[in-house]
Amino acid sequence: MIGASLAALGSAALAGTGLGAYRALRRRGLHRCLFPLVRDSLRTRGSRRVHVLLCVADHFEPLWGNPGERVARERVTNWVDGYPQLMDSFRDSDGRPPRHSFFFPIDQYRADHVDALAKLCRRGFGEVEIHLHHDHDTAENLRHTLTTYASILAGKHGLLGRDKSGRLAYGFIHGNWALDNARPDGRWCGVDNELDILRETGCYADFTLPSAPSPTQTRMINSIYYAVDDPCRAKSHDHGVRVGTSPRPRDSLMLIQGPLLLDWRRRKLENGCLQASQPPSMARLDRWIDAQVTVPQRPDWVFVKLHTHGAPEANQRVLLGEPMVEFHRQLAERAKRDDRFAYHYVTAREMYNLARAAEAGYDGEIRDALDFELASNLDVVHDRAAA
């Protein structure tokens, strides 16, 4: 989990005292994106109408901290039972309830955990995607791991998504933030051509970033962009082509980043994390909007991809407790009193579809583009069973 206090960056960074600030930021790896971080942190919201596309991407790890099987099951049960009870009364601007994206760690696969989440998702409260922790891996083994577990999640549990040809598709979050072998010490990955392997095995987009203050943080921030793998070097996604600014590069993978800003007023690094020490609020929502993660063709669509580790008990008290309930209440109140503000609960797959729709110049309603390219396998399996 990511700490967020700017105190960790040093008082020099807050004061902006030249070399001292740079050294403080460098210790946390933020010097690589210093200019865009400061530039984007100075943004303020305009007065135009905005549609907030809200996605919570959960690194959902029931076995986090090695709690034992009983506690792990309880963590899953808390979500399956508690989420509908708390959230079913809320509706977004399209009349849909909150939707959660569970990025389940396939290295910690438990069939009963995934079955329980699948039942929750079939009730309309979210979708399951792929999360992976690995270390000193090989390209061959990574490919085998991804294809094996994607097939299990889809075939055994009816999860993930499919494109119009029927090909399996999944969203991805890398464990320990080390996408494409991005750590300087080479730990927690080991595969320099990971972007290519993800794309070739059906990954439609990566949702790992931001990772600051980890040194895996990219120079590109607050962006939806395409990255092309360079198999001869790690961290190929450090640079890329922003979606909608030019044609999609050949053999590229989309990356959808969450907000990353300096919050001067609260003396915090705003990285879109939801956890015990970082509950959601309207003030944070304003900063997430200020990050302006958009596609040029639809500047009124603001993509707000948040992240969390939702299984541990301390974070459940936020995500399945009053802080999140109050956040949803305030979203509804804000939309009611401000006709320039609309909000839409989306899953990771739906967020990707909306990014592709925006890139294509789509000018229709958001609710009609949620399956623009990829359909949920939940719906495919349900329809097949009904037939």
Please report the number of helical segments. Answer: 12
Broad shape = globular
* Strand element count: 15
List segments where confidence is low: pLDDT < 50 over at least 5 consecutive residues. 1-17, 382-387
Overall average pLDDT: 91
Structural class: alpha/beta
In helices, the fraction of residues equals 25-40%
Instruction: Determine Rg (CA atoms, Å).
Output: 20 Å
The assembly state of the depicted protein chains is single chain
Largest sheet: 13 strands, mixed
**Beta-strand percentage range:** 15-25%
Order of helices and strands: HHHEHEHEHEEHEEEEEEEHEHHEHEH
Distance between the termini: 44 Å
Question: How would you summarize what this structure contains?
Answer:
This protein has helices at 11-15, 19-27, 34-41, 69-87, 111-125, 139-155, 194-200, 282-290, 313-319, 322-337, 348-359, 377-386, and strands at residues 50-59, 100-105, 126-132, 161-162, 168-174, 203-206, 224-228, 241-242, 252-256, 261-263, 268-270, 273-274, 301-308, 341-345, 375-376. It is of the alpha/beta class and 387 residues long. Helix 4 packs parallel to helix 5 (111-125).
